[in-house]
Amino acid sequence: HHHPVHHPVQDTVQLRSDSTHSQADSSIGSRGSRVSLDPPLTTSALRSVFERSTYFISSAKEDVSSTVVEPFQTVDSVSPFLYKQFYQTFSHSLFYHTRLMISRQAKIMWRAKSIYYYRLLKDFLLGLVIGSLFWDRDRSDYSARVALALSAATEMSFSNMSEVPFSCHAKAVFSKQLDAGFSPAFSYALSVVLVHMPLAAVECLLFVIPVYWMTGFIDTVDRFFFFLLTVFVFNLVMSALFRCIAYGTGKPDVGQVLVEPVVYLMVLTAGFLLTFHKIPNFMIWLYWISPFSWAVRSISLNEFNDAIYDTVTVNGQRTGDSYLSSWQIQTESAWKWAGVGVLFGYFLFLAALSAVLIGTKRKWLAIGTKRQDSIGSRTVANQNESRRQTDITRQTVAKTTTTQTADPQDDGDDNIFDDIRLSVSNASSVLPFQPMNLVWRDLKYYVTVKKIDETGKAGTVRKPLLSGVNGFSKPGTLTALMGSSGAGKTTLMDVIAGRKTAGTVEGDILVNGRPMKRRRFNRLMGYVEQTDIHMTNATVKEALHFSARLRLPRSVTDTQRVQFVEEVMDILELTQLSN
Asked: What is the pLDDT of residue 398?
């Protein structure tokens, strides 16, 4: 024999059918006595109990689907605040979004600075090692200089491979912000590129200085800075290419697997391991599109077109041109700057492509529980354990942390839905608020699954995950969606929030009695999943302030924005976790 243990946070409510009503009433004794009841363990039993409650009966009489709290006004009659919030795709200009994105991206990179310290140190040490291996090469050792050009390009390529996992993680976060109308995809892509540029410049400088001056390249300032410029632009090209691969795949492991063959193929057709005439004619296009071939050509021309190589060989050819011809590299000086121009064009194209990929090629993670076909597989032992866990006292209900408004004349357990109410603050928000009724009516969701029939033949069948679900949520109220594991709670929320990218959705979703406009609704609502994804190096307060600065128009002052964020944190009980 044991006594029940009461904890105000862990209070539960037990529902029962009328068949056990008299038995339950007889088992309720004095204060503190234990009640042992059989809770509804199936969907139909729970539904039966709920539909007999006075809360259900009273709410069923309301028809909020046709009720318009406050209709949307025409564009000409709204205030600047409402115009920014409800009648534009984004709250601010492209410049403002880009500036704010750059600020956030720089802060995130700075907080992960230890990673970049090691990255820069690695580049400098590797430059010293390569410079020592090719120390002060003789002018006649032209093959070593071509090899150094390829080594510089290869190192910049390897150094940027870390962009793949970082970009995959960032895409998982920004995809949700993009759907919510935070910012254009172009602003985010541009911010990543611009914040990466200073890192790339320092990285190239630390690597190029020992490689260039220790190995005996032409010791003039203009030749050195052209070498540095070529390596810098090549660095930007490879970082943009790896981001495109990451945004296109969305998965770090897949992206890193694809990077290896892409880089290997470009190095193989760069004109060093296989010279121009040794590449088969049907694959020569790989030579012309390889960023490595353009970088190696420009660096080689920068070296061998100097006056120091103007001496004439025994066959009457200029020495520098002879060295270039032996590697089947073009000798005209126009190719030198053409290489930088083509690389810069690659960079612009890949940067634009990354904005397209992050804005269109995205997929939501399947987070949450899976729907179970039935509850019939549960064993009797599990059912008995469930009964023991849900036994409660009458006093437990009275001590819940929510505010109760029980009718003293009605002691029936069927009215337990009426007895529990949530205390809502009457404090007005610092910002204008337009109340909205949200209604979902006859909502259905189907997915296509594989099925093997009795003959063993594989096929597909439409499986319903939601079957004619109806419900509503009124302004200023908190609606709790309850059900057993696998009942479809997460699926219903995902469908309402527009997070389902596969399957078929049928039915109506109404906002203030009108069909939902998905793009606008995503900007106005907030959806937090069971396991949500955020930037690791941003605090809770910073994430909310960043959201507020992007989504609220400029008519909202800094003081109002700060007060609004504090209000949100207080309502969600996040104040103690703000930093």
From this structure: 34
